[in-house]
UniProtKB/TrEMBL annotation:
Its main location: membrane. Belongs to the SEC23/SEC24 family. SEC24 subfamily. Residues 177-200 have a biased composition (Polar residues). This is Protein transport protein Sec24-like At3g07100. It is found in: Cytoplasmic vesicle, COPII-coated vesicle membrane; Endoplasmic reticulum membrane; Golgi apparatus membrane. Residues 1-21, 138-214 are annotated as: Disordered. Residues 415-579 form the Sec23/Sec24 trunk domain. Residues 584-668 form the Sec23/Sec24 beta-sandwich domain. One of its GO terms (molecular function) is zinc ion binding. Gene3D superfamilies: Sec23/Sec24 helical domain, Severin, von Willebrand factor, type A domain, Zn-finger domain of Sec23/24.
Length: 905
């Protein structure tokens, strides 16, 4: 954003909290609409340009090397229009249909093109965007999922990872003023059934009318600035008002200017959204807000109703190659102006043909103009080779079950001999019974083996050689640390340093799996890893096979078939979803934006081919991405900006498809409006991906924590200094919009197991959480950071769901039953005075319906875990109460005091 980069040493370190004890399918058919009469020859469409492709890059893919100079900045690279896909015109009239996209679309044939790494450079990133002076290496890189059954598992010692044991942190910096270890300086710890005792007894929480006079004097000023409504105060003082959820969690809709073609069309926010819903008009205003500026994208998300268009004429801008969308300007029925480069283009003659009604009509009735997300069935020119059969290869770990036959010896060889390169592949439909019989016989075939060796690297080399000419997907089911052959590893975990803030073993121990992944990417092969471990397996190293090949990582700690039913159920559900979900092969993703804006850093699992082009051997509906945005030129004279993401992939039917997402946002020159339309969900998703990338790249844990804390300090310093100038030093003002939850969200990130300091966390578990944040979509990250807490006792019939509670133990009673949704799990906490009997009544049915609704709107299964008040797993629940103080972390009030102190410096 143009802010000067500062090191962490330039700012006060985030002080340590007081050391106190914690409180208690059917394939879609495409209708062909033939016009009443053929068009006259004089009206034949004019060609908009010949097809242009990104040619295969010569040479083998370069293997990127790690740089030890983390203090240098790459230089900025410009955006260049790239005609990677062009439309051709023909005499076929367009057809369109609105199709429900089921799961189960499989075996899309890949095509291949050579890839070559291009190391990009980025401009300095401001510290509140987690970007202080480090060299980030870029690699080559809504059908809701419902469950018919929702098992409730009474967690035992083996069902979940054991709660982290807190240990006294060492080496914390000194406490700030007002945050000493003296307990008298803080409000007393709340107890169950006890109301919170305010540290400010003069005023009552949740009563803005009782604010001090200088605060009340700002009400009229904010109303005149349009910063609120008459129904609720335009701002709140976070030091006084802790009932943050009383304003609700509904997001504000922005109004688009009427100069765009379809101002009422909106892009699905679960697919494409920006951290700022109204874009600052110039760089000075953006820097003054000190808010993160970026995008989150879920390009292949399951969509219930998707407009699929089959036409020989895909209308695109001749200059910047933008696809026509609802936010262009239609000059007349023959011309349109691009909303990214603002140049005029001609409309083809057959664009006035409406495939939905089968008549000639206005261009505004076209599905491309009426939908922010559309999918084109591309012409044959979009294929570089004939469709190939999709191939799935499974690598199964049989450690302690293998024999001393040639099976083990062949796998140990670094360069295995393959008699044929395709004779080992079988057709699934023709050999389904043979495959099922073979899988069922595996346990008995190797039950006599007792080998403790594992040669994963050699097995991956064989799988790669087997399908390198075809492409496909390799699925690895691993249980132990590879300890022999290529890619062998040794244990690096020291149990005595799990609570240390200096974590050294999150970077890969070898580049073997990265080099293999890059080779697989060049041959259109993705690698997915299922790690079912009972001991340390060096996940931070093994994950490279998925990170650099656009794959996925799944982790199941303490997995045991008989003693850990919870993880067994998770694995079954995840594997079922994995095998039946849609998949796209040989995918490329390009993001374009309005002139004056540029993209500079991407986050996710992919291969970066150019500044705005990502290559993915496979694309799946459960992975999301993020990217930072910079403002290179002022947006003076513009009333809106647009971002467009185009995903080109091969479907299971062997056709090439282009899925287009277009996002339009208004431009403002008012700073208060920028704060008012701050998008919390998108921001925490972006910041969490950036923080996880930093840790996985070798940066220190303390550095990442300080950067996260500075993000909220910078934002509130700007708001309080530039907007709420009349406040006293004891106030910390915030809009009543979602920005009020920003400090609580950052505190939730600091307390999450992967970012926490001073508590014992296994290396594999920390790495698994970091990898989850790297690719997880918005809804998963939101619940991981801000869990949803509900009281189930008073679940009224008229309510769709219970009222959301604050994440504090003072809201928990011994007579209540509480549900906490943390994204990957759903906890049901039963108070000590409640019986554990299962009742068949109206309330029970409503609760079960509520549980089913929670599972329905997420793609990854989250098991329900029962936790008794007297259970040793109680800390799994209490550790997610982010507002409470723990031995190694702030309470919410203490964190606000730290933010206020930094703001007033």
């Amino acid at each position: 954003m143009g802010l000067p980069a500062q090191s962490v040493s330039d700012r006060m370190k985030l002080p340590a909290p007081p050391l106190l004890a914690p409180p208690a399918s059917v394939p879609p058919s495409y209708a062909n609409f033939i016009p009443p009469a053929p068009l006259p020859s004089s009206m034949s469409p004019a060609s908009t340009g010949s097809p242009a492709f990104v040619p295969p890059l010569p040479g083998a893919p370069a293997v990127p090397s790690f740089s030890s100079n983390v203090g240098s900045f790459p230089s900025a690279f410009p955006l260049r229009p790239n005609q990677n896909v062009a439309a051709s015109n023909g005499g076929v009239y367009p057809t369109s249909t609105r199709v429900s996209q089921p799961y189960g679309e499989r075996f899309p044939p890949p095509s291949s093109f050579a890839l070559n790494e291009q190391r990009g450079t980025a401009a300095p990133v401001p510290r509140n965007l987690l970007g202080e002076n480090y060299l980030k290496e870029q690699s080559l890189s809504e059908v809701p999922h419902s469950s018919s059954s929702h098992p409730v598992i009474d967690a035992s010692a083996a069902s979940l990872p054991q709660p982290p044991s807190n240990s006294k942190p060492s080496g914390f910096p000194s406490m700030p003023n007002g945050c000493s270890n003296n307990q008298s300086n803080f409000p007393p710890l709340p107890q169950p059934n006890q109301l919170h005792q305010s540290a400010y007894p003069t005023y009552r929480y949740g009563s803005p009318g009782n604010y001090p006079s200088q605060v009340a004097g700002l009400q009229q000023d904010f109303q005149q600035m349009g910063f609120g409504s008459h129904q609720q105060p335009p701002f709140i003082d976070l030091m006084q008002d802790r009932e943050l959820f009383r304003f609700g969690t509904d997001e504000q809709e922005v109004e688009l200017p009427h100069t765009v073609c379809s101002p009422n069309v909106r892009c699905n926010p679960s697919i494409f959204r920006c951290t700022l819903k109204q874009i600052p008009q110039n760089e000075e205003l953006l820097n003054k807000s000190r808010l993160p500026f970026g995008l989150t994208l879920h390009p292949f998300r399951d969509i219930k109703n998707l407009s699929v268009i089959q036409t020989s004429t895909i209308v695109r801008c001749r200059y910047c190659r933008t696809y026509i969308n609802p936010y262009v300007y239609l000059i007349d029925n023959r011309h349109w102006k691009c909303n990214l480069c603002f140049r005029s283009n001609d409309l083809p003659d057959d664009f006035n043909w409406d495939p939905t009604s089968g008549t000639f009509a206005e261009p505004t009735r076209r599905p491309e103009i009426r939908n922010a997300t559309v999918e084109f069935i591309a012409p044959p020119e979009y294929m570089l080779r004939p469709p190939q059969p999709a191939v799935y290869v499974f690598i199964i770990d049989l450690t302690n079950l293998s024999t001393s036959s040639n099976f083990k010896g062949n796998l140990f060889q670094g360069n295995p001999f393959l008699p044929v390169n395709d004779g080992l592949l079988v057709n699934l439909k023709k050999n389904i019974e043979t495959i099922r019989s073979f899988v069922q016989s595996l346990p008995s075939l190797y039950e006599s083996g007792r080998s403790g060796h594992n040669c994963l690297g050699a097995a991956l080399n064989i799988a790669h050689a087997l399908i390198e000419n075809i492409g496909g997907r390799i699925t690895v089911l691993q249980t132990v640390l590879p300890n022999i052959g290529p890619g062998s590893l040794i244990s690096r975990e020291d149990p005595n340093k799990r609570a240390s803030s200096d974590i050294q073993c999150l970077i890969p121990a070898t580049d073997f799996y990265k080099r293999l992944a890059l080779e697989c990417t060049g041959h259109q092969i993705a690698i997915d890893l299922f790690l079912l471990s009972t001991q340390y397996s060096d996940l931070s190293t093994l994950a490279d096979m998925a990170k650099f090949s656009s794959g996925c990582v799944y982790h199941y700690p303490n997995y045991h078939m008989n003693r850990n039913l919870l993880q067994v159920k998770r694995f079954q559900k995840h594997l079922s979803r994995y095998l039946t979900r849609k998949i796209g092969f040989e995918a490329v993703l390009r993001i374009r934006c309005t002139r004056g804006l540029t993209l500079h850093t991407f986050y996710g699992n992919f291969f970066v081919r150019s500044t705005d082009l990502l290559a993915m051997a496979n694309v799946n509906p459960d992975s999301a991405f993020a990217v930072q945005v910079q403002m290179e030129e002022d947006l003076n004279g513009l009333n809106s900006v647009c971002f467009q993401a185009a995903l080109l992939y091969t479907s299971s039917k062997g056709d090439r498809r282009i899925r287009i997402h277009t996002l339009c946002l208004p431009v403002t020159k008012d700073l208060t409006t920028v704060f008012k339309y701050f998008d919390l969900k998108c921001s925490i998703s972006l910041l969490s991906k950036m923080a996880s990338e930093r840790l996985l790249s070798g940066r220190s844990l303390e550095d990442s924590r300080e950067a996260m804390a500075n993000a909220v300090v910078d934002a509130f310093a700007s708001f309080n200094n530039a907007v709420a100038r009349q406040g006293s030093v004891s106030n910390l003002f915030s809009p009543t919009t979602m920005m009020r939850l920003f400090p609580l969200a950052i505190l939730g990130m600091l307390k999450h197991s992967c970012f926490s300091s001073g508590r014992s966390t296994k290396l594999d578990s920390r790495a698994a959480d970091l990898l989850l944040f790297r690719t997880a979509p918005l809804e998963v990250i939101e619940l991981e950071i801000l869990p949803a807490l509900y009281l189930l006792n008073d679940f009224c019939e008229v309510e769709e769901k219970p009222q959301r509670l604050r994440l504090s133990y003072e809201c928990v009673s011994s007579e209540g039953v509480f549900l906490m949704d943390i994204g990957s799990y759903v906890y049901i906490y039963v108070g000590s005075k409640k019986t554990f009997d299962v009742l068949d009544n109206t309330l029970s049915k409503r609760v079960h319906n509520f549980l089913r609704s929670l599972q329905c709107y997420r793609s990854v299964f989250a098991p329900v875990v029962l936790i008794r008040d007297d259970s040793h797993l109680r800390e799994l629940f209490t550790s997610r109460l982010n507002e409470d103080r723990t031995e190694s972390s702030y309470s919410y009030v203490e964190f606000l005091r730290h933010v206020r102190q930094e703001v007033r410096r």
